[in-house]
């Protein structure tokens, strides 16, 4: 047993990051050297109910408590002590979406996640009005679409927030949001680092005839910059997080953030000119800009947690279809009476992709579990297509599914690099797809034609990044910026592995992209003609 760590836990010289991802809720407790002391997770999944992708907020609470309980148990087992003190806590979650509460804090409509592609009219009208790209997943697009739809709940709104802001509010009573997540609720004015007053006034003009009993500014969370205190764990929050009663209240909470912000922190990508890519249910790249760029449907402008503008390319779909196919291979194993090791199964299948034809053998796949904003598909239809001449084998099958995970992202990245001449020297990557050494990096390097680095913390992901933000709040020196804190303290001796693009892979991905763009008509036909609920 490490007595130093034990004493740090007892004294509360720790930071806890909790992140609500698309498929997992994860908690990571770190020490003052930013090393992971303990981690835990809870599996969950979204549901398509009445046309909306959602999560039951009761499961949000159950998952929060179960994740913390696992962490608590692991610490007790490893160190023989009960977790009572924590130096700081931070909450993170899937970016944006729409949680609408009334004045009493009751949920008005089921949580509408980032995954919904139901706000096209609102997003388009607001983009035109503001002359600023408003993506469909942004909270303001969800709110305005509800207004356009004359939804009854809008009149009763007392507060709207994101999932990270909701968890933070439950724990602290503070209506706060970190700037990175807030910049996806409503546009941020980079000069004031608050919501754009001009656009708030424009929105007020747009809905003036509705005569709602609220104004937008009053129902949005307050915006906080990384490093600021954003509230304290109150008694109700402590009991919510830890029903056993062991955890003490009064712990400072840092501003809650979206998974994009924690991904930037986890990959040391908050300085201008740096970039990172995060893969999971969705996939997104974040490039910290050093200049203004034009408005494009494929590019979102958000901020780092400390307020620098970021060009964001987000595709709604990434790993869900890959996971489904691996699940099918698992069933085949089990049907033969075997019990597969899932880590080994992923590793074997991913490594087969390295043996494939450079272009994937003429195969084609779309992992569209939901609508895809970049390619303009309104609904999800996972699709695999081949011709009689295609080279259909396991290696090509796996390569094409890994290629398609990056394909929609590539379309958006081309705009940044070719139209706006944004230079990307390398990409720092994190997420489950990169856990198998080299394979995901090689596919990503081929797709983006840039070197791709994965650092040793990549497996911990956003929950670790959230813990770092919590630690920064209480451990930074006076006037120490986030970028300097990360570079000089957190990542000063971080180990990583960089993979450069292979010319054959780059050429192969280019051939695949020709097939991918031509085949979008097939995907659209699947949306149009493959009905969602077959009659029994």
Automatic annotation (TrEMBL):
GO BP terms, alphabetized: carbohydrate metabolic process
Ranges of residues in domain Carbohydrate kinase FGGY N-terminal: 16-241
Domain Carbohydrate kinase FGGY C-terminal as annotated: residue spans: 276-473
InterPro entries: ATPase_NBD (IPR043129), FGGY_C (IPR018485), FGGY_Carb_Kinase (IPR050406), FGGY_N (IPR018484)
Single GO MF annotation: kinase activity
Residue ranges crossing the lipid bilayer per the database entry: none
UniProt keyword annotations, A-Z: Kinase, Transferase
CDD domains: ASKHA_NBD_FGGY_BaXK-like (cd07809)
One Pfam family hit: FGGY_N
Family: Belongs to the FGGY kinase family.
PANTHER family: SUGAR KINASE (PTHR43095), XYLULOSE KINASE (PTHR43095:SF5)
Name this protein carries in UniProt: ATPase
Source organism per UniProt: Paenibacillus ferrarius
């Amino acid at each position: 047993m490490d007595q130093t760590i034990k004493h740090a836990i007892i004294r509360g010289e720790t930071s806890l990051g909790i992140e609500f991802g698309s498929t997992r809720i994860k908690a990571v407790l770190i020490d003052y050297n930013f090393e992971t002391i303990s981690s835990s997770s809870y599996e969950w999944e979204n549901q398509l109910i009445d046309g909306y992708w959602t999560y039951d907020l009761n499961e949000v609470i159950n998952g929060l408590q179960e994740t913390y309980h696992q962490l608590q148990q692991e610490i007790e087992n490893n160190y023989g002590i009960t977790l009572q003190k924590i130096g700081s806590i931070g909450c993170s979650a899937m970016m944006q979406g729409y949680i609408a509460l009334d004045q009493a804090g009751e949920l008005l409509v089921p949580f509408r996640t980032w995954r919904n592609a139901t706000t096209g009219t609102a997003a388009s009208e607001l983009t035109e009005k503001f002359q600023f790209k408003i993506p469909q997943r942004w909270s303001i697009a969800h709110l305005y679409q509800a207004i356009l739809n004359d939804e009854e709940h809008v009149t009763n709104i007392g507060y709207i927030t994101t999932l990270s802001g909701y968890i933070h509010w439950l724990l602290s009573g503070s209506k706060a949001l970190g700037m990175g997540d807030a910049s996806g609720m409503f546009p941020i004015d980079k000069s004031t680092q608050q919501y754009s007053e001009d656009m708030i006034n424009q929105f007020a003009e747009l809905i003036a005839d509705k005569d709602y009993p609220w104004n937008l500014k009053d129902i949005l969370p307050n915006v906080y910059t990384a490093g600021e205190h954003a509230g304290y764990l109150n008694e109700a929050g402590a009991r919510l997080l830890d029903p056993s009663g062991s955890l003490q209240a009064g712990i400072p909470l840092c501003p809650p953030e979206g998974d994009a912000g924690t991904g930037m922190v986890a990959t040391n990508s908050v300085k201008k000119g740096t970039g990172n890519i995060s893969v999971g249910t969705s996939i997104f790249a974040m490039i910290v800009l050093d200049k203004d760029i034009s408005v494009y449907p494929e590019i979102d402008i958000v901020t780092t947690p400390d307020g620098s503008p970021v060009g964001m390319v987000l595709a709604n779909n990434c790993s869900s279809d890959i996971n489904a196919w691996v699940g099918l291979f698992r069933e085949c194993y089990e049907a033969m009476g075997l019990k597969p090791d899932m880590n080994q199964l992923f590793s074997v299948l991913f490594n087969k992709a390295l043996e494939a034809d450079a272009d994937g053998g003429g195969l084609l796949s779309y992992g569209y579990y939901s609508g895809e904003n970049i390619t303009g598909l309104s609904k999800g239809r996972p699709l695999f297509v081949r011709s009689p001449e295609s080279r259909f084998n396991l290696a090509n099958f796996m390569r094409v599914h890994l290629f398609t995970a990056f394909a929609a992202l590539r379309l958006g990245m081309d705009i940044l690099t070719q139209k706006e001449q944004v230079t990307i020297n390398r990409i720092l990557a994190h997420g489950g797809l990169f856990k198998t050494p080299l394979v995901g990096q090689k596919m990503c390097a081929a797709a983006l034609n840039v070197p791709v680095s994965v650092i040793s913390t990549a497996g911990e992901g956003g929950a670790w990044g959230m813990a770092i933000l919590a630690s920064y709040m209480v451990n930074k020196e006076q006037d120490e910026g986030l970028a300097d804190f990360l570079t000089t303290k957190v990542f000063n001796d971080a180990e990583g592995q960089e993979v450069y693009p292979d010319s054959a892979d780059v050429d192969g991905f280019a051939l695949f992209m020709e097939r991918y763009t031509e085949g979008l008509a097939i995907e659209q036909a699947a949306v149009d003609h493959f009905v969602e609920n077959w009659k029994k």
